[in-house]
Write a structure and sequence with these properties.
alpha/beta; DNA polymerase, domain 1; TIM Barrel; 14 strands; 37% helix; 19% strand; elongated; binds S-adenosyl-L-homocysteine; binds iron/sulfur cluster; metal-binding; S-adenosyl-L-methionine; rRNA processing; tRNA processing; iron-sulfur
């Protein structure tokens, strides 16, 4: 990339409607958009020149306006359980990470939505670096495509079937790009990943939870709750000062009423911080009038070296917590961990890589 030259955006970021519009503006037929999407998402070519049913002029116009892949693969780490972690470099040299987790039911990918995160939760590796910028929709779709290319090269016919928006960044702080990303991957003409197979996780940006409820996409919502009362939540999640639990629960009620879809609450088990039996009881009380439509995911904490004030809860404490929730009729699971041998918690590979590059 030459200095001063404008970086071309990735064609992966355009929805079918946007690409159709673009072709019409170029004086081309609108079915060109369908043809290009077939090349991108079914045949999965990596250059415009390979799109052999397009004329040379159309290929030249595309090449002039867009790139296909905006990411440069820097590191790929494969864990014993099959989890693969990718470190990608963006055109402006920032690093992001993506994780692929093979499951019994398919292949799940965890994507990053921002470079860094401004929410600053005190247990999280992603928040160590303040947000440098939002990712474009194309940069988010490209993460899925690069994983799909990786699977294609293995030749076992595997497809990315599930997506979790749980990598670095707060997706609702980059709302429009994340929505465009969701439209692209969900579109039946593209990757056609079912909305019910996609989950977006938020730290609790109340106005955006309501907007998300209104937008009609059938994508699942997860909320990082991590504490059953304001004192504990504020001590680990600064955002709780702006959107305390009462406001969050108002937005949850709005979402449930509007969509009638289940919400997952994520709850990281931090030893002696939020893992006491009384916390479990408070959590059950908080959810008591919405047990049918809520689900609690108890997550083992992935230790982050910069946050050594936190430790993982003991197995015994997790079980006691779980039992209280169950006794109160709360739907609850203890989440399995993935790729513990490869820094699988969000932001960990990237933060390690950055430390190495500043100490070298
Ligand atoms: N910003 C969004 C999505 C990305 S974080 C959010 O906070 O929901 C995805 C999930 O990973 C969140 O539930 C987050 O709290 C959790 N998480 C962050 N750091 C973690 C760690 N070290 N161990 C386990 N889970 C962690
Ligand atoms: Fe940001 Fe989510 Fe990490 Fe909080 S947990 S700092 S919101 S990425």
């Amino acid at each position: 990339m030459k200095r001063g030259k404008q970086v071309k955006c990735s064609i992966y970021g355009l929805t079918m409607n946007e690409l159709t519009e673009w072709f019409l503006e170029q004086g081309e037929k609108k079915f060109r958009a369908t043809q290009v999407w077939e090349w991108l998402y079914q045949k999965r070519v990596q250059s415009f020149a390979e799109m052999t049913n397009l004329s040379k002029t159309v290929i030249a116009k595309l090449t002039d306006a867009f790139v296909i892949n905006p990411l440069n693969q820097v590191i790929v780490q494969e864990a014993q359980d099959g989890t693969v972690k990718y470190l990608f470099q963006l055109p402006d040299k920032h690093m992001i990470e993506t994780v692929m987790m093979p499951q019994e039911y398919g292949v799940s990918v965890c994507v990053t939505t921002q470079v860094g995160c401004n929410i600053g939760c005190t247990f999280c590796a992603s928040g160590i670096l303040k947000k440098q910028r939002d990712l474009t929709a194309g940069e988010i779709v490209a993460q899925i495509m690069l994983v799909q290319h990786y699977l294609d090269e293995k030749g076992q016919g595997n497809r990315v079937s599930h997506i979790v928006v749980m990598g670095i960044g707060e997706p609702f702080d980059n709302y429009n790009n994340v929505m465009n990303f969701l439209h692209v991957v969900n579109d039946a003409k593209g990757l056609a990943i079912g909305a019910r197979h996609i989950t977006v996780s938020t730290s609790g940006l109340v106005p955006k939870i309501k907007e998300f409820a209104d937008n009609g996409l059938q994508v699942n919502l997860a909320i990082s709750l991590h504490a059953p009362n304001n004192d504990v939540r504020t001590s680990i999640m600064r955002i709780n000062r702006t959107f305390p639990i009462e406001k969050l629960m108002d937005a949850v009620d709005y979402y449930l009423e509007k969509t009638n879809r289940r919400i997952t609450f994520e709850y990281i088990m931090l030893s002696h911080v939020n893992d006491r039996v009384e916390h479990a009881q408070q959590l059950a009380d908080l959810l008591k009038d919405k047990k049918k439509l809520t689900y609690v995911n108890l997550i083992p904490y992935n230790p982050v070296s910069e946050h050594d004030q936190y430790a993982r809860s003991s197995r015994n404490d997790v079980m006691k917590f779980y039992d209280v929730l169950k006794k109160n009729g709360v739907n609850c699971v203890i989440r399995k961990e993935y790729g513990t041998d490869i820094d699988a918690a969000c932001g960990q590979l990237r933060s390690k890589q950055m430390k190495q590059s500043t100490t070298n």
